[in-house]
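Chapter review: from sequence to fold.
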Amino acid sequence: MSVVSVGDTTDGKPTGMNGWPCGKKYFFWPITFKLGDYFDGFAPDKLANDDITHDFDDRNEACLKEAILYLENRSFFRKRG
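The token string follows.
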């Protein structure tokens, strides 16, 4: 499967935690595992600002517009002709 991302660089967090109860009142959630080395996040294939001037499902919203462009052209550039 090919994955293409549009937006901004993600927040890196290649770590996770498990929780354990301590008596009936407390829970502990220590960091207990690491899944990789992407502490700096993942850069998108196409940088696009979070467009708060359009609703999420509006085709003119910047990220959605770029994603639709890619789906229609298999590229972030419009085909000529």
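Two observations follow directly from the output. The chain has one helix and six strands. The mean pLDDT is 92.
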